[in-house]
Amino acid sequence: MRARVVYARRKQEIRFNGSKGVYCNAQMNPRQLRQFCRLDEASYLLLKNAMDKLGLSARAFERILKVSRTIADLNDTEEIQAEYLAEAITYRSLDRENWGK
To answer: In the chain, what is the straight-line distance between the N-terminal and C-terminal CA atoms, in Å?
Structure first.
């Protein structure tokens, strides 16, 4: 797993080479999100439905995209697949469940 993480971080460093102050997916600005986190129609609908059902904010939308991009990097794929998006949504749901504890 450590090797996968190191590889994913290196991919991110290369991706953001020349972007001042951005070294990893978590630091992406909205323009970079649109560039590097493109979703196919089915994935977009999955995310939109999750947003509606879970009552998530625009900020949560961005966080889910960033986590999905990282999961794709860990799996060495350029496209954010629906399964990566679902995994990121699950993490966000678990995070919300623990807010008040």
So the answer is: 30
